Amino acid sequence: MSNEPAIVSSVAPEFAVLPQHLGVIMDGNGRWATSQGKPRNEGHRAGVEALRRLVACAVEFEIEYLTIFSFSSENWARPADEINAILGLMKRFVASDISKFVAHNVRVRILGRREGLSKPILQMIEQAESRTAHCTGLQLNVAFNYGGRQEITDAVRALAQDVQSGKISPEDIDEAAIAEKLYTAQMPDPDLIFRSSGEVRLSNFLLWQAAYAEFVFFDEFWPEFNRDIFVRIMEEFSGRKRRFGGVDG
Ligand code: FPP
């Protein structure tokens, strides 16, 4: 949406700027587990602990928006027992952490396609969103059953329907109109996206919104994520020059 600069931090004055919107691809749970001689699902369990550390960092550093990639529309291709383990972890996470989110003024939104999701999953989503709907601090977006191309496709389809019904004309379709049909409507674009485990790709995450994002890829597996890594990444981001296609002013 906007190309506003990231925020100048009052909580962490050692950084010139902090991202207003941070996107995180939590990768490497399985490889971490394998490297420890543990089953893959242990990696996801440890990944949830790392996620708690990430949310704590985001709250501490007063990041406004945090979008995490928790389950992609492609992840359904994994073995059923792994999918069930991840869904079970998410369910327990919602049950155990929602009251803490409310206490820390964290609002949770789930970004992704809802069609085809089972009733218990839809109930979990509804519970997480409704119980935190009044929270005005960190806006935590959980990308679940999410795919960036699907999101853009859905937005284009919604605009086509608006044209067909006469609500808008084709000339009204511009970047802002598309952005308003995305799951992130009314939110700033991510300033920074980081990914763990040494993989250097976006994997269909926030494709439209990432147009001007900075990227940081780091080698540690997601379960190893901690505050030191967060600070290291913020230092790196803080030193980046963002020109949004222009030249230095
Ligand atoms: C990537 O590691 C991780 C996932 C696909 C799932 C992430 C899920 C969680 C951290 C837990 C559940 C989420 C919430 C919101 C509680 P991978 O399995 O792709 O690792 P690999 O690349 O080493 O195989």
Automatic annotation (TrEMBL):
Record's signal peptide: none
Note accompanying the cofactor annotation: Binds 2 magnesium ions per subunit.
UniProt-listed InterPro entries: UPP_synth-like (IPR001441), UPP_synth-like_CS (IPR018520), UPP_synth-like_sf (IPR036424)
Residues that coordinate or bind Mg(2+): D27, E214
Alphabetical GO biological process terms: polyprenol biosynthetic process
Catalytic class of the enzyme: transferase
Chain residues that bind substrate: 28-32, 40, 44, 72-74, 76, 78, 195, 201-203
Pfam families listed in its UniProt record: Prenyltransf
Cofactor: Mg(2+)
Alphabetically ordered keywords of this record: Magnesium, Metal-binding, Transferase
NCBIfam families: PRK14830.1, uppS
Protein name (Swiss-Prot/TrEMBL): Isoprenyl transferase
